[in-house]
Amino acid sequence: MSTPGVLSFTLQGWEQVLAKVKRALVYLDAACAESLHWGCGPTRLMEAVGGPVCHLREFQPNAVGGNAEQPKAVFVLSCLLKGRTVETLRDIISRSHFQYCVVVTALSHAVHLTANHVPAAAAAELEGQQPVFEQLEEKLCEWMGNMNYTAEVLHVPLLLAPIAPYLALTPAFASLFPLLSQDIHLLNSARPDKRRLGSLGEVDSTALTPELILQMRCLVSGLSSLCEHLGVREECFAVGALSRVIAADLANYVPAKNRRKTAAGRASVVFVDRTLDLTGAVGHHGDNLAEKIISVLPQLPGHTNDVMVNMEELTALQTQEEDQNVIAPGCLAQANDLAAKALWEALLNTKHKEAVMEVRRHLVEAASRENLPIKMSMGRVTPGQLTSYIQLFKNNLKALRNHCGILQLGLATVQTLKHPQTAKWDNFLAFERLLLQSIGESGMSVVLNQLLPMFKPSTQRTNDDYGPEELLILLTYVYSVIGEFTVDKDLGEAEEKVKKALVQVFCEESELSPLLQKITGCDSATNLTFHKSKIAVDELFSSLWDIAGARSLMKEFKSVYVPGNHTHQVNHIFQIPLRSVWIWDTSW
Question: What topology does CATH give the domain 6-160?
Answer without folding.
Answer: Rossmann fold (3.40.50)
